[in-house]
Amino acid sequence: MGVSGVKCRTFRPRRAVTPQRGVPAIQWSLDKVFMADTPELLPRSLWIGIILLLAFLTLACLLSVGELQHRRPPLRVLGQIADFTLTNENGAVTTLANLTNHVWVADIIFTRCAGPCPRITGQMKGIQDVFPETSDTRFVTLTTDPDYDSPKILKRYGERFNADFNRWMFLTGTKAQIADVAANSLKLGTTPIAPADQKNSVDLFIHTTIFVLVDKHARMRGIYQTGGPDVDWTNKTRPALLADIRRLEREP
Length: 252
Known about the structure:
By secondary structure, this protein is α+β, with helices and mostly antiparallel strands. It has six helices and ten strands. The protein has helices spanning about 25-35, 45-70, 115-130, 150-160, 175-185, 235-250; strands at about 80, 85, 95, 105-110, 140-145, 170, 190, 205, 210-215, 220-225. The strands form three sheets. Strands 1-10-9-4-5-6 form a six-stranded mixed β-sheet, sandwiched between helices. Strand 9 (about 210-215) and strand 10 (about 220-225) form a beta hairpin. The longest helix has 27 residues, at about 45-70. It is elongated. Residues about 5-10 have low confidence and may be disordered.
């Protein structure tokens, strides 16, 4: 009984926690850390150690995932690009040597096209904008309509899409020259439409709407559909193309 009839509670010190018989010391230590009634009383240095350990394990996991990605099988070689001589939007002679040691993406359009060509060029512009101006990746657009698409017209067309002409070249030439590099090397098919079958004055060609990926050694390494009922450009094709460009950039 305390003073003035006030009851006083007897202080009983907490029983010291000792390892249980048969329980490994490491397991007992972890149980003590994570199951203690008053974890806030644990030493600060112990909490710092736990945080550092978790951070280390997280970093190790991320590095392992990155290593697995780098170990993916290389992209298959689909063909070799033959040398060519064409003319760019500035009227300058352009050959395969201008693309040596560059990863590049190619397509084919014609400037009077009222169908998929503006969409395709817009998609190429989107790929161009992902990479900085200092990137070594290049972009190549061929015309299926060389009789009309002069260098001046091609440059005007590129300007409509804010093409960076330091990295993106628009190429024309004779019909034979275009057919040789487009069909025989890049597999970019094009077929003139007979006048009787043309729906309007600019319904001139049927051509592929693909992007072709070429490595630093002029080898075709990928083909990517830009449109169609089963093509998810935004969520699947575009990310895949960007990832493959970066893979080829890392190759020697």
